[in-house]
Design goal:
Layout lengths: L5 E4 L5 E3 L5 H14 L1 H7 L2 H13 L6 H11 L16 H5 L5 H4 L8 E3 L4 E7 L15 H5 L4 H7 L3 E7 L6 E3 L4 E9 L8 H6 L9 E7 L10 E7 L6 E4 L17 E2 L4 E6 L3 E7 L4 E3 L1 H7 L9 E3 L2 E2 L2 E4 L4 E5 L3
Parallel strand pairs: 1-17
Antiparallel strand pairs: 1-2, 3-18, 4-5, 4-17, 5-13, 6-12, 7-8, 7-11, 8-9, 9-13, 10-12, 14-18, 15-16
Helix pairs in contact: 1-2
Amino acid sequence: MMPSHQYIRRDSGEVMTEHLLADRWIGFLYSDMRERFPHLFKALTSNRACDLLGRINYEGLQATNPRKTFELINAWGLDVSEFLDEPETVDTPYKLFTRKIRYWQCRPMTAEQGAVVSPADARLLVGSFARENLLFLKNKFFSYQELLGRGKRRWLSAFAEGDCAIFRLTPDKYHYVHTPVAGRVVDIYEIEGAYHSCNPGAVVSLAQPFSKNKRVVTIIDTDCPEGTGVGLVAHIEIVALMVGDIEQRYSQSRYERPEEVIPGLKLAKGRPKSLFKPGSSTVVLIFQPQRISFAQDIVDNQCSLEATSRYSLGFGAPLVETDLKVRETIAHAKRH
């Protein structure tokens, strides 16, 4: 049986135990089935199976019962006053999953130009690709070359020895992804892949899963007028089990007039950029070396011995996630 998985709430410092959705089934899928029936395992983590599971869970007969949706809202402890739409109209799991919130009111953001903010309501781990760094995470959760795409030599060179942040979105979270920095899009591309679960048990049992899943990579240049000033940033949106799609829909003001994210587009910080549809998912940010410093409380939480985590750095040292909100500050620009 898998050990419990805990995280630390940033707002209160409390250690919380996560009740992982379908944990026993995920454990079976990523142990016995993966080893004994590799072809079946591959089929179950394919695009077609992911789409089918998503439709059953979010659009099936059970999903059309409003009472079930309101039970989910209560079970997840969601604050319906944050919803942009009237709560009674959010009456299916699909609508709940793709809900909009009054982020300009309930997710305040610093005005500091050099601040990097969280792209999502998520649980966060931070790390570095530099071996001399205490947060060295290279090849722990993904293959750096595969994550960015082995054919993308320009970006592989730009981010070598850089820093990274991994944001894990659970099914109850608000699933719009916001811009963590201000800057100009210089590249955006999609990499095909599987639909592996981002459940911590699945992540630790499958080598480098994030670089095996389908993902969208956006390269943002922040060294521009009104930019955040942290160099190039790779913003990577990664699908997971029962996540059918990543829809690009950047809005400069609230959710109004969404537009396609293309090279040349100027992005303001903290605005909606994309939407995961539906399930749990992951966002990874990669920064160039010596351009940012992570917030100290996040680094301290990660090394806490008060929480039990399925993630570790080895030799029993835990990697503890920090639960935080979209648009909270996670890092600051270094003088360059």
